Amino acid sequence: xxxxxxxxxxRFIGIAVALTFATQAFAQTWWGTSAPGASWVSVASSADGxxxxxxxxxxxxxxxxxxxxxxxxxxxxxxxxxxxxACSTNGTTIVAASGSSLIYVxxxxxxxxxxxxxxxxxxxSVASSADGxxxxxxxxxxxYISTDxxTSWTQTSAPNNYYWISVAMSADGxxxxxxSSxxxxxxxxxxYISTDxxTTWTQTGPDYRIYxSVASSADGxxxxxxxxxxxxxxxxxxxTTWTQTxTPSNDYLISVASSADGNKLVAVSIxxxxxAxxxxxTTWGQMNAPGLTWWSVASSADGxxxxxVANGxxxxxxxxxxxxxAADGLPSENWTCYSVSSSADGxxxxxxxxxxxxxxxxxxxxxxxxxxxTxxxxxxxxPTENVWISVASSADGxxxxxxxxxxxxxxxxxxxxxxxxxxxxxxxWTCIASSADGSKLVAxxxxxxxxxxxxxxxxxxxxxxTTWxxxxxxPSENYWISVASSADGSKLVALANLDTNGNLGxxxxxxxxxxxWTQTSAPxxxWWSVASSVDGxxxxxVAQMSGFFPGNGGNxxxxxxxxxxxxxxxxxxxxxxSVASSADGSKLVAVSxxxxxNVIxxxxxxxxxINTSPLNLSFxSVASSADGNKxxxxxxxxxxxxxxxxxxxxxxxxxLSCTNLALSWIIPSCNFVLQQNSDLTTxxxxxxxxxxxxxxxxxxxxxxxxxxxxxxFYRLKSQ
Length: 719
Description:
The chain is 1% helix and 44% strand.
């Protein structure tokens, strides 16, 4: 029999792990950065979107980022009530205005700052030319310009009877546009333009509008102005004529930004939404952004990288830079999410809980998404008479199962569109898990009359929930709190946090789909959540702090041999609420809610961990895609769902299958295509036409190719 080594010696076959990432379409999702929560009021961006600067107005400082918002550093700018910032296209020259004093300039990306000769004023807005030499600043009753990077300033002839609120400048600094909110007699304001660097000004655009922001294309030809009552005005001829457009909703727009060519626009509202246009404002669409009090927005030159700041909130970017977090569009008022689950590729999500702000307070709710959380659907056919405490999904996301506390089990075979009550008895269900194909299910419950439920125990099903069997070998006195399953459903793990005698709980495993159970060597603990690798060998379990058993709880343990031995990860003691694992068990994520809010991740099966908690939120449940790069997490009441997406780097595996080649890779959380090339010195990569098959036993995409007749290299390329 020919070995793979012999086979490859006959024909040189290689795997080229060259991942080329396609430019994302005009951003549709916003991701929270690591910037602290503050009273942010203004933000600016370099042309390439890598250098960002943001200011806040509560007497604090100015922050900058050199990696598209992935990390932020406070600059040496003095503490002040900052009102506006702008920067040159390379991000080196920054101008910042105070709402109550001076204008400052930095010529080294914020490392050092100098107070300029501009007079002390209630400055409202600043703008910069591309090279940073020409600056414009607006205040109540005056507009000033500088032609030497802020060394000297000159008051322009702009009318002094307006409260100038916003200014913008063409790349060469010759064309200016300024908007006022009111005249000094409180009559709504106007828009003025200048074509000679502010020497003269001409009134243009609709009068008597409470304007809040203006933006300009690089050549100054395309202008956009926004005003109260959802008025948006655009001009494609440097302000000679204007056209009114509107966003889909009547929101109070506060800031607008433009790409260099003026085609891509983005506007933010203090009411929550962010809107975008890809046709110079002709039509607008709402983006997938959290509902915050947005205050300012900026754009890269090509319009693909955006940054927005929220007053009293954080700083968000779109698209993401590295592994960051985004709040999705689920309702956040008056509902509590208890459980989240994800398909293997992270595109299909399901969340379950109780109460929602539509007259269903206190009743069970289930939401599903088929596009990684961009759009969510409330599944109105799901029973509402019970509080859904746990939900699980098949690997393809089509088959769902939900458990009620107290109540019944329900299953769905069509992404949650319709639901069927299972034959399992009424019980105080607490946890549920599914095999990859959705055929084998396991559910755990609390014993006795807890919450008015039944007799507890562990139940299993081998036919997608049609029939259920009480597994009598699982100790009935345990308060079962969490279960997990291998992909084939043969290996199960179950946690108990207590037993009926008041003792701390244990961890049990089964190698025969729950028929028999074995107590593992894990210590007694207030166990709360468990996750398993696809083969069931790697396990991770977390415990909550226990007030009844001082010194116990609040730990994370891992096992690499199906629970035979366990290793404590020596992390800070906390009330860990939920844990999830990638298919291979290498990438883990755990969340806690007390005494500190943590979202910690590990890329080495728990050997080391890092804290990635966004905005210091208290999360209650977490789920992961098979590759571990997409994480969905739910906060407690009032619940919000956050999603984290890191850049996948799937490993391409090759093996011999008879005389053919078998290629496989863990199903990624972003789209990849298999390509081949006969010569690595060329760029002649072509897509492999064979459609990969999703293997439910290992959560890998697999394809079999005819053996090549000459040298051949393979790679995965993102789409």
